[in-house]
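=== RUN LOG ===
request id: a7f3
mode: sequence -> structure
chains: 1
length: 252
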Amino acid sequence: MQERPSTPPEHPVAPPVSSAAGAVPGTGLDDPRALQILSTEHWSLLSSRSLIWNESFARAGLFLSLLSASVVALSLIGTESPDFLTFALILLPVTLFIGIATFFRLDDANREEVLWVGAMNRIRHAYVTMVPAVAERLVSGFTDDPMGVGRSYGLTGDVRYTILHFFVTMPGMIAVVDAVIGAVITGAALSKMRYDGMGVGAAAVIAGLVTAVLLGLRSQRAFNSFVSNTRPAFPEPPPGAADSPAAPFKRM
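=== RESULT ===
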């Protein structure tokens, strides 16, 4: 599981440039319109991130509201009713479908979030190219590789995560709720088929655990594969090339 650092992580620092315009000649950043264009794009990316977060919270809230309504509806029917299990097996699968759909959308939103953060790191890279002195005052990363994106999230390593870290994310919490619903559906279905005893409870627990693990593995593999397959345009130079004249940046 990733941990937040107690001190801001180190960044590579750009060497001073001799261009009178404050940017490396030939990059296009010495054009006076470049800063305005980059600033506009930066705010556009911030707006995209805000929309993703708002959608994620709205979808999670919708799912939890539907789950609450389903529980209330089943409680009104009452366990004493002979049709209780029938209604449960109609209502809960629909709720589980909404929960799994919510999980997949939140999982996709996490990958979109990393894409936008990497794009903002590219813009910060341009800022540092224009004015190298600002590199020492940036806490967020300004390279678009996994390490640079991780810095923008306050992580000591890159942005990839483990299966354990998955369960503290929003998709992970939704996955746990989905697993519980799946376990209840399994128990209700077995009870409807006249099975009873400890076997029903064991089957329900197994179904819930399998659901949670499968969703977690899917999320972890999809996220880490997305990060690994993203080709950075402005990565941090490897340690062996940090002192090379061809390296655009040097480490502090």
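=== NOTES ===
The longest strand covers residues 12-13.
The radius of gyration is 25 Å.
=== END ===
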